[in-house]
Amino acid sequence: MLPALAAGSARLAYLDPPFFTQRMQRLSARHEGQVFEFADLWAGQHEYAVFLGECLSEVRRVLSPDGSVFFHCDRRAAHVARGVLDQVFGARHFRNEIIWQYRRWSNARRALLPAHQTIYHYSKSAAYVFHPMFVEYSPATNIDQILQRRTRDARGKAVYARDEAGRVLNGGAKKGVPLGDVWDIPYLNPKAKERVGYPTQKPVLLLQRIIELASDPGDLVLDPCCGSGTTLVAAELLGRRSLGIDASAQAIALARRRLAQPMRSESALLDKGREAYRAADAELLAELGDLELVPVQRNRGIDAILRAHVAGQPVALRVQRAGEPLEEAARLLLRAGRAARCGRMVLLAHCAEAARRDPEWPEQLIVIQSVRAQLERALTAQA
User: Fold this and answer.
1) DSSP H helical segments within the chain, as ranges?
2) How many CB atoms lie within 10 A of CB 50?
3) What Cα–Cα distance (Å) separates residue 196 from each residue in 16, 74, 188, 202, 352?
4) The domain containing residue 374 runs over which residues?
């Protein structure tokens, strides 16, 4: 199919080829019970490199002079892909090494948890389409950095620009910070609406960012390893034309179904930022002292979990809020602790009735008076 395409017809190409995993990739669709699979098995790195070289050579031919390719890979063969890309597109046309980072599940291997993949960006020539994007300033950015203009001195060092009188110049309206090459975009969770059960499916949000960076509305976006069609869906949502190629008839049929109703899952994490999920109250956690614990960010009943389990089960902790009835604090902790299958639930109470136990409370609930409450009680008694 690639050789049949006209030279210079696509503005952007995205490739998410097999990653040299040396195994069959297999996954079941969530609703239909259909199994999608493809072989990622190679005689060795040389055979894999030859496959990439043939594909990328055709991709380069199909790209317009101002076009770009974004090549998706991971730790297993990134070095192979980089060498082939340098050979086909020229090392001078390397533009970016994008790190797509995400949070995933626990790791059973004796190694660091794999939490990123790599996307190489090469252009066909020195003149290529690129639309800068901007993000919010870091919370650590001071007001001078936001407001004042920067320049380079005679030694090439970045300094604040000044006028003839030595006054620092205002930088004018600010767009934010240019988008960097580390992208924090959530991996598709198992309940995401756009998830279709195809192995290695990528988020539409990731592809939309790539398409917005390196193409214009109406441009042709090419994906020669289109799989479930995520690139095509993203292109459709952004007003681009698209062409997807895949060796699997199942994959093509799935991509057609997705294109009939293109959609993406919204990401609350991207909209709000990770800090928005830090709901644990630092002041409350401070009352737990120097205990080795893990703060819990998104739970009404539990503030923290002890790092060490007791009798093989987790221990949940909660600090009573100001003005919160003891019974309410206990109810919230019990409900959350049971749902999390905690063996013990410890409630630090501020009220004087901490020693009073409701006969209905189970033995697993331990209520103790906080140090702060004991101190306040002692000082009140001496007044």
Assistant:
1) 45-62, 78-89, 143-147, 204-214, 230-237, 249-260, 268-272, 282-286, 326-339, 371-382
2) 13
3) 17, 22, 10, 11, 55
4) 278-382
pLDDT band, very low/low/confident/very high, at 276 (cuts 50, 70, 90): very low
Do 36 and 7 lie in a common domain?
Answer: yes
Residue 226 is given by DSSP the state -
Same domain, 47 and 91: yes
Closest residue by Cα to residue 227 from 192, 255, 196, 195 = 255
Residues 122 and 253 in one domain: yes
3-state SS assignment for residue 293: strand
- Asked if 186 and 167 sit in the same domain, the reply is no
Angle in degrees, CA 254, 257, 261, rounded to 5: 140
Return the minimum-mean-pLDDT range out of 17-31, 83-97, 220-234, 271-285: 271-285
Instruction: Give me the pLDDT at residue 285, please.
Output: 63
Whether residues 20 and 125 fall in one domain:
yes
pLDDT at 18 over 60: yes
Q: At what angle do helices 230-237 and 249-260 cross, to 10 degrees?
A: 20
Q: Within 10 A of 117 (CB to CB), how many other CB atoms are there?
A: 21
CA atoms within 13 A on the CB side of 197: 13
Q: Does the predicted model carry a pTM greater than 0.90?
A: no
pLDDT of residue 380: 57
Mean pLDDT of 114-130: 97
Q: How many domains does the chain have?
A: 3
Q: Are 359 and 313 part of one and the same domain?
A: yes
Amino acid at 233: V
- The pLDDT value given to residue 6: 96
Q: Please state which of the ranges 25-39, 97-111, 336-350 shows the lowest mean pLDDT.
A: 25-39
Q: Which CATH number belongs to the domain containing residue 19 in this structure?
A: 3.40.50.150
Three-class DSSP category at 71 = strand
**Mean of pLDDT over the chain:** 85
Burial 189-208 (b: 16+ CB within 10 A, else e): eeebebbbbbbbbbbbbbbb
92 and 193 together in one domain:
yes
Residue 337 to residue 218: CA distance in whole angstroms: 54
